[in-house]
From TrEMBL:
Stretch forming the signal peptide: none
Protein name, as recorded: Septum formation initiator
GO CC term, one of those recorded: cell septum
Region Disordered: start-end pairs: 1-21, 119-145
Gene Ontology biological-process annotations: FtsZ-dependent cytokinesis
Any matching Pfam family: DivIC
Alphabetized InterPro entries for the sequence: Cell_div_FtsB (IPR023081), FtsL/DivIC (IPR007060)
Coiled-coil annotated spans: 70-97
Length: 145
């Protein structure tokens, strides 16, 4: 039985060496250089291509950022739902909200406004005292006739 690298009809020398793969193919060096370049190109495409590993890494980072933003929006939504419920059902909360947002004050309430400068005294503002509402049945007396 003949060895695959031996030619038909000739015997290989006993002390001879096997030819290398580059010697078998004509232009063997060129073949290996092109094969190495092709491997580098495929590796670069795998890492940095349109759907490469770097793109996958960026997509995962974007997904994590969107997930965190979604969680914060859910928390904000829950807070707003609770606020709406309180505005519909809680009269004290409605009153506090109106007083905060519209700067309303209660009858005979005193508001202190502190000046930002150091050393100046506080400014006191007092709501005007309102008397009892007028009685529609009571008529004023006219004199002079």
């Amino acid at each position: 039985m003949a060895l695959p690298h031996a030619k038909r009809g000739s015997k290989s020398p006993v002390g001879g060496s096997n030819p290398s793969p580059m010697e078998k193919i004509s232009g063997g060096r060129l073949y290996w250089v092109l094969l190495a370049l092709l491997g580098l190109a495929l590796g670069a495409t795998l890492l940095f291509g349109n759907k490469g590993l770097y793109h996958l890494y960026q997509l995962r980072q974007e997904r994590e950022r969107l997930f965190q933003a979604n969680l914060s929006l859910k928390d904000e939504n829950e807070r707003l739902v609770k606020t709406i419920d309180r505005l519909q059902n809680d009269r004290e909360f409605i009153e506090d909200t109106i007083r905060k947002e519209l700067n309303f004050i209660k009858k005979n309430e005193v508001i202190y406004q502190l000046a930002p400068e150091v050393g100046s005294g506080p400014k006191v503002t007092q709501a005007p005292a309102l008397g009892p509402p007028p009685n529609p049945t009571a008529r004023s007396k006219r004199t002079g006739r």
